[in-house]
Amino acid sequence: MRGRNDAGQSKRPILLCCMMIVCLCLLFLYFSGSNGQAKSTAFEYGTKFTRTLGWGSDDGEDGSEESVFGTGDADDIKPKSFPVCNDRHSELIPCLDRNLIYQMRLKLDLNLMEHYERHCPPPERRFNCLIPPPHGYKVPIKWPKSRDVVWKANIPHTHLAKEKSDQNWMVEAGEKIKFPGGGTHFHHGADKYISNIANMLNFKANNINNEGMLRTVLDVGCGVASFGGYLLSSNVIAMSLAPNDVHQNQIQFALERGIPAYLGVLGTKRLPYPSRSFELAHCSRCRIDWLQRDGILLLELDRLLRPGGYFAYSSPEAYAQDEEDLRIWKEMSALVERMCWQIAEKRNQTVIWVKPLNNDCYRRRALGTKPPLCKSGDDPDSVWGVPMEACITPYPEQMHRDGGTGLAPWPARLTTPPPRLADLYVTADTFEKDTEMWQQRVENYWSLLGPKVKPDTIRNIMDMKANFGSFAAALKDKDVWVMNVVPHDGPSTLKIIYDRGLIGSNHDWCEAFSTYPRTYDLLHAWTVFSDLDKRGCSAEDLLLEMDRILRPTGFIIVRDKSIVTDFIKKYLHALHWEAITVVDAETSPESEENEMILIIRKKLWLPEASSQDSTM
């Protein structure tokens, strides 16, 4: 009996060890397999690793004030690599992902286009992997050739070429896709159509820029952005806007062509642009019901147009004689009349309305006229996630008295202090010093980039924290355009950027940007990571997002504290990035402490050879 008891006791430790091993295996499978999903999904969702390093928290819920960038010691944890996302995610836009909408069972009103608005994944559903380029991806064709032709392998979608074959949107040509410059309403070319609009407005020499007084344009429902692309030769810049709808790759084509564009929709939220930003709004067969909800979408355009701004509308309602089109035209005409718009010209299939220069017409309207004026407490420049309102935005008293914006013509507008600086209590002297400082900084950047950058290397640029837009202003002599991003929770400087004749958007860098992967050649991040740290958002998520939107062989310029640049350098290998240089930044009064400049280049890697680093 004694021998048997000893034998039983000796087996218990072995049994316990076996049970522990089984439990550990199950735990490993749980964390790696993401609740039993396919192995590829385990590579796509990954917050467990980030949380162990103190990242992945969006609201600092642990109450810790320790920086996410750690101590800066060389012994801090360094990721060896990031997994590659599944090929089906090669065009992922995290906050405009329809699969996410279905998976989260969001209850959205399709009639109000809510399914095309931003819906970002919660932290536990964010992707923790590198977005792969499509098979056969090539370095994009350089501007200005890219306006007319791109590589088909980079955007392997030809359905628009077939669907819009009679409208000259795009044409397949072997391994390339060509863009003849046509559109739904301008089959014979955007250049002729633009000239016709200028002629309708009696602009000198049929030039749409109106001697520099028309500079910024909003093109709603832009297609592949040929309208915006052909405006550029007239020194006019358009924000080409379209949703990720059935023509889902139209904005991707626009950006691949080197044309400014943004994924957005006139739905329930204000567009991420400040009031009185555009001299011209344009809609060519954009299929928008302008009469819905008391004209709320047309009133959003009204908020965005400057005093005396134009709305060019090319659509069957403007010329067709069938009963339904006549009804829409009659009701739309009555609506814009109550909004104090007047017809500047109506010819053939296009009508152009003009917005009043001051508040006089609004004040003459009968009491109770709809749409009403917006309440005095409404901030027309507060836009991030703010619902639209069916009301007219009146002009501030100073703008009313001036009878316009008081802006200089382009290109003097770029460096002339705009009147709205006073809204921010910023002096002309401060503005001019900021312009001069960034001119020097940009010259230094290009000196550091040196032989890596040729005149046509860079086309699409994003300034991730643009302030007054002086970084973009310093690039005026280069053949580039800049998406100026202004933090949604900071001073409303985006209106100053538009008043300089530049374009941009509000954004929250705790979330993904509304663009396709591989759409920018250069990202400029001035203290963006330090700001993110203060809010407790994930620095790792931001690195992955920057990698998503940066083109292979593209550049990143980080200007931030040394602890930030040290942190980023630990990720270079994992992200397939290489450091070009890291130097001390020039000192300036705006810097809280000494800043560093880290210049990075993204390597070109392909899914079938992701383990090999290939540079261009």
TrEMBL record:
Regions that span the bilayer: 12-31
SUPFAM superfamilies the UniProt entry points to: S-adenosyl-L-methionine-dependent methyltransferases
UniProt keywords, alphabetically: Glycoprotein, Membrane, Methyltransferase, Signal-anchor, Transferase, Transmembrane, Transmembrane helix
Localization in the cell: Golgi apparatus membrane; Membrane
Keyword Membrane set for record: yes
GO molecular function per UniProt: methyltransferase activity
GO BP: methylation
InterPro entries with a match to the protein in the record: Put_SAM_MeTrfase (IPR004159), SAM-dependent_MTases_sf (IPR029063)
Membrane topology listed for this record: Single-pass type II membrane protein
The EC number(s) this enzyme carries: 2.1.1.-
Any GO CC annotation of this UniProt entry: Golgi membrane
Family the UniProt entry places it in: Belongs to the methyltransferase superfamily.
Protein name, UniProt field: Methyltransferase
Gene source species: Panicum hallii var. hallii
